[in-house]
Write a structure and sequence with these properties.
The chain is of the alpha/beta class. Helices cover 17% and strands 33% of the residues. The protein has a seven-stranded mixed beta sheet. The structure holds uridine-diphosphate-N-acetylglucosamine (UD1) and calcium ion.
Length: 466
């Protein structure tokens, strides 16, 4: 099989986005557009990948490199295009990176949802001696390059701005993906001119040159339109986002997940679900999330980087984000409404975390409860502990974080402050309103607050009569 070198064009400004952010860095399902394109290369085993950058080149390169490192794929090579004189000019910048043999696959950095198997079949259609184009039939082809055929054979691609009225009625358009024998590409690129409506060097002019040189041009139509949808405007980006999100919801429903409304669901990462999972409206999942059998997610939850075990119920308006330290919620646990689980929160089975409770870098053993208005940070909470309303761990002394240990079966009353480092012995009780600065013995009642004073028949001050 011929070696494949890949060129991804990502140098354009993206004028129609009307944004300071380079177009290829706008996000679809939480990932930059160009990262989607690079992600589709997985099964191709390309010899080399070159990304053409230009507009905000450094920002695009840093972002692509960071994405590649996070995703465990090799960081691509970059070639800068300054100024940006069109897609043909863009590919010229990649020439020094391309081998002399093999096939060059050219991809548009702003057409994010192309699939690996489609690219594979495009490379196969090239076969090392043909110019292979990926095309698509669009009900509204406005703005795209039209595929002009004569007697079925592809003769040229005419850009929308250069097309005649008759050519504009053509619905078959170029997707921005082509596979070219590299030796031919290198010979043709210097022959592309810029005598056209936009005075740009169009890569699409390769088709005419191939026809002139008697090289066969094949255009294969992509069956699924979404693979060819380019992003040129905020509107197209939003439409593609909704299309993609609906597909993700449909794929999950195929596996048995029940959505109150699949149109009000967003997945910006991966979601693995067991059986009988239910998701209410307006939930957002990010990073890697797994939901065990029978998990129920209430309305308006945001859940990122978390494992929720079987039978757990996440009530509405709960925010969970494990970032680098995945959150775990144990079997049958009840969380929320209005709970916040931060990185390193690990909840055992049957744990209850109620409204306005924040948990960070803390472990709650089986059956522990923190039901109202509380903070647990850098803490180990034993089994069956009851942590009272309004209590907090003071884990930060202004310079360092310290741990709190609350042993099994402790009862912490309301409105307590546990000043870390501190340990509450097993089975102990902390009286409401206590500020605990010293370790307490197992089984002890600890009260650390001013004693109550009552003065009999106290008369409040009165205003003098007028
Ligand atoms: C291009 C095609 C058009 C096709 C459409 C599909 C050309 C001349 N036209 O048009 O036939 O129907 O894609 O989506 O190729 N870029 C550079 N450097 C440049 C110009 C563009 O790197 O100098 C990059 C852009 O960042 C973008 C891609 O190339 O990722 C496509 O550029 P864009 O200007 O969006 O081309 P279209 O007008 O959409
Ligand atoms: Ca485009």
């Amino acid at each position: 099989m011929a070696a494949v070198d890949v060129v991804v064009m990502a140098a354009g400004l993206g004028t129609r986005m009307k944004s300071r952010v380079p177009k290829v860095l706008h996000r679809l399902a939480g990932r930059p557009l160009v990262a989607h394109v690079l992600g589709s290369l997985g099964e191709l085993q390309a010899r080399r990948v070159v990304v053409i950058t230009g507009h905000e080149a450094q920002q695009v390169e840093d972002s692509v490199a960071a994405w590649a490192q996070r995703s465990g794929v090799p960081v691509p090579a970059f070639a800068r295009q300054q100024p940006q004189l069109g897609t043909g000019h863009a590919v010229m910048q990649a020439v020094p990176h391309l081998g002399d043999d093999g096939i060059t696959l050219v991809l548009n950095g702003d057409v994010p949802l192309v699939q690996g198997r489609t690219l594979r079949s495009l490379v196969d259609a090239c076969g090392g001696d043909r110019l292979a184009l990926l095309s698509v039939d669009l009900p509204d082809p406005t703005g795209y390059g039209r595929i002009v055929r004569e007697g079925g054979a592809v003769r040229s691609i005419v850009e929308h701005k250069d097309a005649s009225e008759a050519q504009r009625t053509v619905r078959e358009v170029y997707t921005g993906f082509m596979a070219v024998p590299t030796a031919r590409l290198k010979a043709w690129l210097p022959r592309i001119g810029n005598d056209n409506a936009q005075q740009e060097y169009y890569l699409t002019d390769l088709v005419k040159l191939a026809v002139q040189d008697g090289v066969e041009v094949v255009a294969t139509k992509v069956a699924d339109r979404v693979e060819a949808d380019g992003v040129n405007s905020p509107r197209q980006l939003a439409e593609l986002e909704r299309t993609w999100q609906l597909r993700q919801a449909q794929a999950l429903m195929e596996q048995g997940v029940r959505f109150a409304d699949p149109a009000r669901f967003d997945l910006r990462g991966t979601l693995q679900c067991g059986q009988d999972v239910q998701v209410d409206v307006n939930c957002v999942f990010e990073g890697d999330v797994t939901l065990g059998d029978g998990v129920s997610i209430g309305a308006n939850c945001v859940i990122a980087n978390a494992h929720i075990a079987a039978g757990a119920v996440i009530h509405p308006f709960t925010h969970i984000d494990g970032e680098q330290a995945r959150v775990s919620v144990g079997e049958g646990a009840l969380v929320g409404p209005f709970a916040r689980l931060r990185p390193g929160a690990r909840l055992g089975a049957q744990v209850h975390v109620g409204n306005f409770v924040e948990i960070k870098n803390a472990t709650l053993a089986d059956g522990a409860k923190a039901n109202h208005l509380a903070y647990l940070g850098d803490t180990d909470v034993g089994a069956r502990v009851n942590y009272g309303a309004g209590s907090i761990t003071a884990n930060y002394d202004g310079a360092n974080k310290h741990r709190t240990v609350i042993e099994a079966d402790v009862h912490v009353g309301s409105n307590c402050v546990l000043v870390a480092p501190v340990r509450i012995g097993a089975g102990g009780t902390v009286g409401a309103g206590s500020v605990i600065t010293k370790d307490t013995a197992a089984g002890a009642l600890s009260v650390a607050r001013g004693r109550q004073v009552s003065i009999a028949n106290w008369e409040r001050p009165k205003k003098p009569p007028k």
